[in-house]
Amino acid sequence: MDYLRGCKASGNSEILAVKLNNFTMLYSLWDQAHYMYGTIGDYMAHPVHDANDLYIIRGDIFALTYEKC
Prior knowledge:
mainly beta, 1 helix
């Protein structure tokens, strides 16, 4: 949790996110048969009000759609 930073999307939804320093495979609770793949520079994030919902956002998309809170 020390590495997470607050961010805000254009639709006022807030997330906590961390920039990935390693290649990462993330299995979600809603689809445990498939994984999301993150590379260095992508972000792992979750909504502020739902710590169980984790996902990966591509680094280039993150820069366009989120801003610091």
